[in-house]
Amino acid sequence: RRTAALASSSGPGRTQDGHPVALLANIGGVADAVDAGAQDLEGVGLFRTEFVYLSATTAPTAQEQAEIYRQVFAPFPGRRVIVRTLDAGADKPLAFADLGPEENPALGQRGLRLSAVRPDLLDAQLEALAIAAKDTGADVRVMAPMVATAEEAAWFARRVRENGLPKSGVMIEVPAAALRSRDVLAEVDFGSLGTNDLGQYTMAADRMHGALSDLLDPWQPAVLDVVAAACHGAADRGKPMGVCGEAGGDPLLALVLTGLGVQSLSMASAKVPMVRYALSRHTLSDCQRLAALARDARSAGDAQAAVRAGANPEV
Ligand code: PEP
Ligand code: MG
């Protein structure tokens, strides 16, 4: 029965009472884009552009990049594609953007911090994105990784505007940006919570360290509190907040995130049907009740158990 129900749920994401929650794909290149483009989803919530250049030894020109981005955008005319500018650094090394080894790469000159010292790389990428967006008719929006302050968001938004792209956003994956989302989002059009890094930085636990997986559990109530604060600030500022970390693809957690105020969920495209189904079986006020249950719990395990017990058992 559940399989039949899953198969029959289609179309835009919405709760049982019609509250919209956009369902989007996380992609890493052309093959993912073609695959996601053929599926029933509203667009792309995270294109990790650094994945395209993992084996590049020299910086790609704007023309070379535009050629790839055109292929990525082509399956999405009229649909949104959120492109993240290069998230490189010592933790995600790219040969042509190497600033040398760092003692604490996750806390170093990565993401937008690298763009600040290599604005030539950022500008070439934005130029390429503007060309490809124009050619394909996709609703392209760019966002910056690893933003911590409103000043950084303003710097990025200005460069995006100067390159003729209409919309800018920031990843909310540093607790500082989450706690001050009201100020950070004043500078841009949207925020997108990166729950992978937000968990790492909130719990002070290296996301690559297998022995710390309990601390990195996205159900950690402290992480949910930080997400709640970020959503609160976004609502205050009247700007949309999404999720593009792995947490968005867990159907129960997707309900909690919706209850906390998130308006879009981006995930591996294979997870979209389950999340769509979970949303369709709960009202917005159910989601809010489940979010409150999760935040009332004392541990990640208790939060998950409480939500599982409180949710529709078919999910
Ligand atoms: C995140 O940090 O949650 C995120 C979506 O980005 P990445 O996993 O690429 O760091
Ligand atoms: Mg991240």
UniProtKB/TrEMBL annotation:
GO MF term set: phosphoenolpyruvate-protein phosphotransferase activity
Domain PEP-utilising enzyme C-terminal: 12-281
EC number: 2.7.3.9
Localization: Cytoplasm
Family from the record: Belongs to the PEP-utilizing enzyme family.
Main function: General (non sugar-specific) component of the phosphoenolpyruvate-dependent sugar phosphotransferase system (sugar PTS). This major carbohydrate active-transport system catalyzes the phosphorylation of incoming sugar substrates concomitantly with their translocation across the cell membrane. Enzyme I transfers the phosphoryl group from phosphoenolpyruvate (PEP) to the phosphoryl carrier protein (HPr).
Cofactors required: Mg(2+)
Keyword Kinase: yes
Protein name: Phosphoenolpyruvate-protein phosphotransferase
Gene from which the chain derives: ptsP
Segments of this protein annotated with the region Disordered: 1-18
Domain of life according to the entry: Bacteria
